[in-house]
Amino acid sequence: xxxxxxxxxxxxxxxxxxxxxxxxxxxxxxxxxxxxxxxxxxxxxxxxxxxxxxxxxxxxxxxxxxxxxxxxxxxxxxxxxxxxxxxxxxxxxxxxxxxxxxxxxxxxxxxxxxxxxxxxxxxxxxxxxxxxxxxxxxxxxxxxxxxxxxxxxxxxxxxxxxxxxxxxxxxxxxxxxxxxxxxxxxxxxxxxxxxxxxxxxxxxxxxxxxxxxxxxxxxxxxxxxxxxxxxxxxxxxxxxxxxxxxxxxxxxxxxxxxxxxxxxxxxxxxxxxxxxxxxxxxxx
Amino acid sequence: xxxxxxxxxxxxxxxxxxxxxxxxxxxxxxxxxxxxxxxxxxxxxxxxxxxxxxxxxxxxxxxxxxxxxxxxxxxxxxxxxxxxxxxxxxxxxxxxxxxxxxxxxxxxxxxxxxxxxxxxxxxxxxxxxxxxxxxxxxxxxxxxxxxxxxxxxxxxxxxxxxxxxxxxxxxxxxxxxxxxxxxxxxxxxxxxxxxxxxxxxxxxxxxxxxxxxxxxxxxxxxxxxxxxxxxxxxxxxxxxxxxxxxxxxxxxxxxxxxxxxxxxxxxxxxxxxxxxxxxxxxxxxxxxxxxxxxxxxxxxxxxxxxxxxxxxxxxxxxxxxxxxx
Lengths: 284, 325
Fold this sequence. Notes:
heterodimer, A: mainly alpha, 13 helices, 0% strand, globular, B: alpha/beta, Rossmann fold, 6-stranded mixed beta sheet, 4-stranded antiparallel beta sheet, 11 helices
């Protein structure tokens, strides 16, 4: 009998092959590098705002250190998340649909690999990619700001660490589960990518139409990006003196945003559970 | 010989149908054939052995270990070649087999080495860097066999391995299966509805009919029993029949020179040639009787109840008005 590797963590084989496949595409690799540009811009802004020489050179017109606040970090995370979404829409469906297109899933599951491990192997690729382009750079930026600002700024705003991580993880969970569920059902990479775009960009249009016709705001529940914005606004405490969310993220209550996003995640998990099988049972 | 697969009153229900119904038996052959018409439950049995389907009742054991409780361990020791296409189209053959071997538990470097070996073993060495999507049907079958072999399994489950193959590819694949069997390191279970495939490769056979065991027999023993049974066609010759009988053979004549002869263990075929020469008899045709599996299969298919003691079929499951349970 051939030598055996460790029993646990076998899903990492899937992750390794997933990364290898994704980064074998040059355009994908180039775009991943592109996703780091907002991070570099953010770092530059934070540095320059705190740089006395630059400020004096520009007569203090570059910006004030008060710019770098919770709103700045939420916007930065939002920009990174949008770029990360394109990254996932590009790469994630292919990782799964290839396995389903020619029934290779039965070969995975005939080995010492459970369905949960299969899913974990694939989701971990999305998770690592999105983490490295969203909440991790934001956190690094926060640390840089805390370092440059000093005077206890870091401790005063330490709550933002939780907000950044939780916001990032919420986005990752939503995007990864929805993209996997779509890929498993559609099986054709291009169609899966199109459908993923449809879920995030066409459904909001439908929601807006519902709002216009029925004179309601509940159509916004079909706009998942907006719902994520509602949750983030609260997590980053972007509120007025009365505790109401600032800006446009006040059309639906917070609880409905959480409930909808959790429901979408649960439905995606249900779809995955239903479809991710070695054999399909024929019902008679 | 220790049993490879043991079935203990195994029943499997899919949807509303009972597909396997109280299977009971032990299979200990080096190469086991699973025969039966389409829909008899062959693939379902294989899928149950792989843990894809949960038994409704009863249990299955492989190498003495219960499938349900030792699934992970057993899957590492099983190689599975499914009936349908199963590959990742844009991976090269060797990359795909390496990937599968790594998931089975081999370290990356060893998986790569074994993937190359497996590809050369099945005769696809030259095509191993080509993408699987460009393979012909026969090559895909061989690639499936390679991925089933690469991690060094102790049991190979082959579901309809010759499906869709041309005669040459089929012969090649069956030859490979025989070679694998003859290494003595791997037990093979072949599911097929082709008698010839099973007869060529297997020493034990289980015949399924409507989810029940219709027959379970050792082909090797059947072959031994039939080995000395000859059918002859000879030119008319005085005294040949009597001389053959005098050798100690049981002999029956069917006219027009057609004889059936059962040779005792101590008599060899060349002695018949010698007698024929002595009596100036021309032997025009001589056949070993080799239709044993077909006989067994037809007999099993025509039986209403099995000889293995399976219970009679249970009454149909109650249905509600809309057809659901």
